[in-house]
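Hey,

Quick one before I head out. I ran the complex with LBFN2T5F overnight. Inputs first:
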Amino acid sequence: MLVQFSKMHGLGNDFVVIDNVTQNIFLSREQISKLADRHLGIGFDQLLMVEPPYDPDVDFHYRIFNADGSEVEQCGNGARCFGRFVRMKGLTNKSEISVSTKKGVIQIRLEADGQVNVDMGAPILEPSEIPFRANKQEITYILRAEEQTFFVGAVSMGNPHCVMLVDDVASAPVQETGALLTKFERFPEGANIGFLQITDTNAAKLRVFERGVGETQACGTGACAAAVWGILQEKLKSPARIELPGGSLEISWQPGESLWMRGPAEHVFDGQFSL
Ligand SMILES: N[C@@H](CCC[C@H](N)C(=O)O)C(=O)O
């Protein structure tokens, strides 16, 4: 059987996108991780499955799988590529698209200048809902792991994020600390680990060690979580420009409201693989 796919990326965070509205594809965890292999497969950070809506109030359902084959709740760069994909493939002619994910509904707005703006919903700060083990909700938590102490924010954008401030993102120990904390026991479902350097009241640099992948060129939900934590600490103001290794995202958020993430989504090529 041949599976049709598109290769896309959002700021270098790359995806294989499969239309499961007109195809009927099931991939096991092992098949996904093989396809994600950059030497033996197609290579991607996440696999995105475009599915018909389960709910009449939304246009599509969206499933997201990390390179290790684990299914996740949310993906910011993926959401922008998802919006561009469904328009490009003629699955919709709308420019405002409502999509359910494993954790909630997002609204994708395709803008005339080619940028994609996504209403990612309100960030989740209640520890048990992130999920994060803590006695009470705080802006900054102290984590102790392998005799090291970290001062971190814990934020869910549907998926769990742990963010810490660094003086210089270029020399931050992203691999070592990312690998140490991504499966840290206080995040029972794991976490994406962000390293944030605030450079101005409206600007910051960020690198993210993603759960189930490792460091990526960009993490959309990571940028959202980092902006939220920076704003809560009154170190950043909305709209904030978050500069990732692959490029920048604009994040707009006021406490108590929905968060908007704006940035590009690129189509690279179409292809097919056999199952
Ligand atoms: N790259 C993504 C996030 C993908 C999921 C993440 N690795 C997780 O496990 O939660 C983004 O752009 O948000």
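The domain at 127-257 is CATH 3.10.310.10 (Diaminopimelate Epimerase; Chain A, domain 1).

Talk tomorrow,
K.
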